[in-house]
Design a protein that fits this description.
It is built from ten helices and 14 strands. With about 290 residues, the chain is α/β, with parallel strands linked by helices. It has two domains: about 50 residues, Spermidine synthase, tetramerisation domain (Spermidine Synthase, Chain: A, domain 2, Roll); about 220 residues, Vaccinia Virus protein VP39 (Rossmann fold, 3-Layer(aba) Sandwich). The strands form three sheets. It has a seven-stranded mixed beta sheet, sandwiched between helices. The chain has a five-stranded antiparallel beta sheet with strand order 3-4-5-6-7. A two-stranded antiparallel ribbon has the order 1-2. The structure holds spermidine.
């Protein structure tokens, strides 16, 4: 078998996520692939975005475009929660979400609960720039286990921020989109706490997106989707949805916290965030408000 750098090439050509009659692909090579206990885990190397990760054939992240996703899911929450000492990340086994959270110096303790140990192991091995320093940060605590059970077992009001960085609602991530789970997330937030989740594409997965936002509005009394881009994901158009225990505080980043992180961001800034919350398509806004 041929080699690319230190890696064996298992296959080369177009690597596509196929969904609903459309293919979203990158040209590259498959350098590692294995069925874990939960899903098929694939690592690719591409000319355009560098090394990347797929789970069950769906794009998750890649070295040269992960910031679109990780900055968007983290900073609206970390810049707006009343306190940010204790953070829970459910999923996020590539480390990108934890890395961005830990850029906030007020974070004292971050629990990351990822169900699939192979995702963590291969992210550390093949995608070290995505987790960056998170794996060795003394504030970082990794548990390979079920995030749904973790949330159910956590004491009331035990986190300032809960971030759900799961994959699509099929397979191991299915339970990350239902009412019972969202209710647990709300219960374990302290007063002034903020919840964030990836909420799928308003184009490719419109129904899941709408259902997720509506459900969060029922559970928290309000919730707001924010729109941006993750070029490798289906349609490239993505969303993250935020809620809080005491109103829509995530719309207003704290200026001091924002200034401390935004010079290190490629995508996120308070201005980008304002536009991203406002960039709700008209028909979608009507549907969500109906
Ligand atoms: N369709 C892809 C949804 C993936 C969301 N999670 C990505 C993991 C990045 N940390």
């Amino acid at each position: 078998m041929r080699k690319a750098g230190d890696c064996e090439i298992l296959a080369m050509g177009w690597i596509d996520e196929v969904f609903d009659g459309v293919r979203y692909g990158l040209e590259g090579t498959v350098i590692a692939e294995k069925d874990s206990a939960f899903q098929k885990v694939t690592i690719i190397d591409s000319a355009r975005y560098g090394k990347g990760l797929l789970l069950d054939g769906c794009w998750m992240t890649a070295e040269r475009q992960e910031r679109h996703y990780h900055e968007a899911i983290v900073h609206p929450a970390l810049c707006s929660a009343k306190r940010i000492e204790r953070v829970l990340v459910i999923g996020g086994g590539d480390g990108g979400t934890a890395r961005e959270c830990l850029r906030h110096s007020s974070v004292q303790h971050l629990d990351l609960v990822e169900i699939d140990g192979l995702v963590v192991e291969w992210s550390q091995q093949y995608l070290p720039s995505i987790g960056g320093g998170c794996w060795n940060d003394p504030r970082f605590h990794l548990t390979v286990g079920d995030g749904i059970a973790w949330a159910a077992d956590a004491p009331d009001a035990s986190y300032d921020v809960v971030i759900v960085d799961g994959s699509d609602p099929a397979g191991p991530a299915e339970g990350l989109f239902n009412r019972a789970f969202f209710e647990q997330c709300r219960r374990i937030l302290r007063q002034g706490g903020v919840f964030a989740t990836q909420s799928e594409s308003p184009e490719a997965f419109r129904e899941v997106h709408v259902d997720t936002v509506k459900l969060l509005r029922q559970v928290f009394g309000h919730a707001d989707p924010m729109y941006g881009w993750v070029p490798m994901y289906p349609s490239g158009w993505w969303s993250w949805t935020f809620a809080a225990t005491d109103g829509r505080r995530y719309l207003q980043p704290d200026p001091a916290r924002a200034t401390a992180v935004d010079c290190g961001c490629e995508i996120w800034s308070p201005r980008w965030q304002r536009g991203a919350f406002d960039a709700i398509p008209a028909a979608l806004e009507r549907e969500l408000n109906a």
